[in-house]
Amino acid sequence: MRLGSLENLRSQLLEVTLALVVGFVGGAIALTAFGHNALENIQVMISYGFRDLGYLLLKSAPIVLAALAFLVPLKAGLFNIGGEGQLYAGAITALLLSKVGFYLAIPAGALAGLLVGVAIGLLRVVRGVNEVVSSIMFNLTLYYLSMFAIQRYLLDPVYTHQSIRVDRVLSLPEVVAVMLLFPLAVYLLLYNTELGYRIRVAGSSSRVARYAGVNLNIVTIQSMAMGGFLAGLGGAIQVYGVTSVVDTTLSSLYGLGFLGIGVALIARGNPLAVIPAAILVSGLLIGSHWMELRGRVAPELADVVIGVVILALSAPYAYRVLTSRMGWGVGGG
Amino acid sequence: MVVDSYDILLYLAFASITYMTPVLLASLGEIIVERSGVVNIGVEGLLLASAFAATLVAIVTGNPLLGFASGALVGLLAGLIHGVLAVYLRADQIIAGLAFNMVAYGLTVMGLVSIWKHHGASPRVGVSLEEIEVAGYYVNPVSLASIALAILAWYTLTKTRVGLALRACGEDPRAAEAMGVDVSRYRVAATSIGGLLAGIGGAFLALEVVGQFTRGISAGRGFIALANVAFSGWNPLLAVPGAYIFGFLEALSIYMQQWALGYEYVARTLPYIGTLLVVTVFAWKAIVPRSLAKPYVKE
Questions:
Q1: pTM exceeds cut of 0.90
Q2: B250 with B13: CB under 8 angstroms?
Q3: For B42-57, what is each residue's pLDDT tens digit?
Q4: In the beta sheet, which residues pair with residue B134?
Q5: What CATH architecture is A12-30+39-325?
Q6: Cα of A260 vs its chain's centroid, Å
Q7: What's the ipTM?
Q8: CB neighbours of A129 closer than 8 A, spacing ≥ 6?
Q9: Where does the pLDDT of residue B188 fall: very low under 50, low under 70, confident under 90, or very high at 90 and above?
Q10: From the list A133, A148, A300, which residue is nearest B105 (CB)?
Q11: Cα separation of A290 and A263, whole Å?
Q12: What is the full DSSP assignment across B22-69?
């Protein structure tokens, strides 16, 4: 989905805006159903979420990478739901290698994510195992193995609810650079290289791919490797750029991979649109924690809102019917 | 300490029947859904939402049957919504399912915190169904019913006209329509029934397996059910041994967590690694319903 015509962009923006409205209405219904003041809580979530720009951007960077981890395989027609596990693998590997030095630990984290991605791709290519199922099995396995690794090898001797602390070697400008450069790199790769072309052909339909002489198996492995690499890097950056530690329940990592999926879908599969989408989602996330502090509402309201947004976006046909009935004339194609 | 390994094996063999039940019910539901040509990867969310509803109602009323009924109802409604999205609004079924999982997770944690002021678990339910004695061991009646249901689902799918019509919707909706079958209605009915069965599974998980609602109680069982659907080759009868393998892995994992001190987290990975191995070894292709996940648009 290239930026393409302005008309197309306009209709997509309208779709996303409508979906956001639906999402907040869904959140408001949930809040009301559980006996909270909907308006007040949503107001706190939105107004507090976007106050501290530096923190907002810092939190967005790993989510940008997690989103790209879902987006690249999606272009090849694959659902990499394994970003979550690939991100754990990246974070924990980078932590384990902290003594070696960050310049090795961060790439090693990305490599660990890549290996998980390749494993999922191989299982699909060689044994026909559905990548959604294998991804989730890897996520859950890596979730427990990561907690095991922290408890056994990485525990801080003083603060025993978390891992050892690493230096936050990445400064805010560096993290922001990562967050801007990787979407651009993915964009250029997808639309200006031979590999990107093959990925997009593979995603369009298997018949077209066969006519174009694209080897689906190889593209599957390649796109899953890239997806895993990006998620693994996201995990490493979460540790070396954002949190410095990982707690024993993985709460500083948990959910980032799934949020990335949401961001990629809100961005409508456009690598550049991932940047504003990630800022939006991470703002909601930060805001939801403020909301919890003030109103004793679980921050998982953010999951409800984002989930309803994606649900609303999953049916573009519904918008076409809606917009044509209301005479807004953004038919789209 | 002397541990009789035969006794342990027998204990695990029976415990597995309890652990397999939520996965079996969810698998049977998903087989019906996928045979109609729709895929619902929101099974995980179905289990979560119905487990929550069942816990809430069972605690408030003190009646486990009402708990089961509300779990089933929540599953039915969620399945219906997925059917309407997939069939009438032509939604991307994978994405709708993923989104539903997110919504269900968010809603149940919000409910947990709002209703019971706790971030991890509800209070104990304290009531459950009376178990039936079989050869000196106790088995849950719902577990037995779910095995009977597998046979019924197999019979209905393969031997009856309704089953034939449903399978036609999943294989060749155009031909089904020519036979006079309303494809859209069949598909929405299938996702609703699938949701209902997963809903009973979720209620069972909360009321009979765990005894309370916990955050993320489904713990991947919805996806294990999806794996089991592929393992079974979309055959309800084969879903029984598939679910049993998983049930055994879970029973073994829980048993090992008590002994493998310091390695509890490693023991916990057993059901997931085991499921991965099973789907890798028994990967049969080509029996997938041909029109799976493809919206049917009437001319």
A1: yes
A2: no
A3: 999 999 999 999 999 9
A4: B137
A5: Orthogonal Bundle (1.10)
A6: 1
A7: 0.93
A8: A123, B276, B279, B280, B283
A9: very high
A10: A300
A11: 21
A12: HHHHHHHHHHHHHHTT---TTHHHHHHHHHHHHHHHHHHH--HHHHHH
The backbone torsions φ and ψ at residue A163, rounded to the nearest 5 degrees and listed phi first, read -80, 170
- Please, what is the average pLDDT of chain A? 92
Closest CA to A55 of A333, A271, A287, A251: A287
Q: Considering only alpha carbons, which residue of chain A is nearest residue B81?
A: A311
Q: Which residues lie below 8 Å from residue B1, measured CB to CB, with a gap of 6+?
A: none
Distance CA B221, CA B223 (A): 5
pLDDT exceeds 60 at position A245: yes
B102 to A307: CB separation less than 8 angstroms, yes or no = yes
Who's near B226: CB < 8 A, 6+ residues apart? Answer: A130, A132, A133, B30, B41, B43
A141 contacts B98? CB cut-off 8 A: no
A 219-248 near B (Cβ less than 8 A) = none
Contact between residue B200 and residue B25 where contact means Cβ atoms under 8 Å apart: yes
CATH class of the B2-281 domain in this structure? mainly alpha
Tell me if B276 and A138 make a contact (CB, 8 A cut-off).
yes
Test mutation, B102, B228, B229, B265, chain A, max A CBs within 10 A: B102
Give the Cα separation of A244 and A166 in Å (integer).
Answer: 5
Among A304, A309, A322, the strongest candidate for a mutation testing the B interface, having the largest count of B CBs within 10 A, is A304
Q: What share of chain B is helix, strand, coil (3-state, %, to 5)?
A: 70, 5, 25
For chain B, helix (H) and strand (E) counts, in that order, are 12, 2
- So what's the pLDDT on residue B271? 95
Spatial distance between the Cα atoms of A79 and B94, rounded to a whole number of angstroms: 9
CA dihedral A326, A327, A328, A331 (to 10 degrees): 100
Query: Are the beta carbons of A303 and B102 separated by less than 8 Å?
Result: yes
Q: Give me the pLDDT at residue B133, please.
A: 86
Chain A nearest C-alpha distance from B231 (Å): 10
DSSP A186-230: HHHHHHHSHHHHHHHHHHH-HHHHHHTT--HHHHHHHHHHHHHHH
Show which of residues 161-200 on chain A sit within 8 Å of chain B, judged by CB atoms: none
Q: In the structure encoding, which two tokens stand for residue A97, read together?
A: 């290698």
Nearest residue on chain B to A258, judged by CA atoms? B102
Contact present, A144 and B269 (Cβ < 8 Å): yes
Indicate the pLDDT class of residue B124, thresholds 50, 70 and 90. Answer: very high
Supply the pLDDT for residue A4: 55
Tally A–B CB contacts below 8 A: 146
pLDDT at residue B175 is higher than 80 = yes
pLDDT at A173 over 80: yes
- Does the structure show a pLDDT above 70 at A2? no
- CB distance B219–A140 less than 8 Å? yes
Q: Is B217 helix (H, G, I), strand (E, B) or coil?
A: coil
Side chain identity, residue A165: R
Above pLDDT 90, what percent of chain B?
Answer: 81
- pLDDT surpassing 80 at residue B285: no
